[in-house]
Amino acid sequence: MTSQPSAPDTVSPLVLGSQPVKLVATDVDGTILSYAQTATGELSPRTVEAFRAVREAGVVVVLVTGRPVRALRRISTALELLGPVIASNGAVTYDLVADSPIQAQGLTADILFEAKDLIRGLDPTVSFAAETLAALHMEESFARGSLWLDEKHRKAAGVSDDEIRLGPLDATLKRAAGGLPDEVPALKLLAKTHAMKADAFIAESQERIGHLVTVTHSAPGVSLLEISAKGVNKAQALHRYAESLGIGAQESIAFGDMPNDVEMLQWAGTSWAVGSAHHMARSAADQVTESCDDDGVAVVLEKLLEGELT
User: Fold this and answer.
1) How many helices, marked H, and strands, marked E, lie in the chain?
2) pTM for this one?
């Protein structure tokens, strides 16, 4: 696995219009990894080759995803990316080499439990999970049907059994004791229902808890909320990472497919939604490429490498 450059040493030879491209930021699931391959994490050879060529041209490549860090190592290995990733919808920027967080913005215990109670008041059938850097906490009702309970999927993603905590969140997150300590923050609260459609669930939850937290969604066909600390999203984490490398938004391109990608797609100098994207992502992006299943991101990167984009 090759190391990513800490910052471009020279002006990137890749140009979009009159602007050099120094950074490529991409979502994972539904963008470069089809949902059919989520369980295995197997990227298409065309996608792997396109990212290799872009990286060898001196461009920084960074994964910016809703996935937790623990579910990124196989993807990063396949793409030969070694270094920072932005995970949990921007709640953590993590160095895979040092195996430590660069920056994390977690939910405080009081905000997490207040948001959880307010959502439960909206729909008493809602089930919950929460991500920390150490583990995925899941209520039994949330875990049913979850890929993380499937041993084959866990092994494929490199997730060990001791990284799963089953039980009521009030117990596993130690509500009675005031919640987890600051050094083990909850990066993301997840809420799932079968009683409401996704858009309605998001809208009503946003009205109830939007003053406390950031609410987004990334799972097509599932009424699943992804809840982060107020102000946390992919764009703010990507901006901070790019700034640390001396790279501006106009020197960056981004790819995504779901509502949790909207801010990132709007931040980048030029952005693409894959053809299979949610309507919110398509509206936020500057352009639309082929679907994920048709290697839409690779199509754009190949044209960039050939100087065919204007």
Assistant:
1) 11, 16
2) 0.91
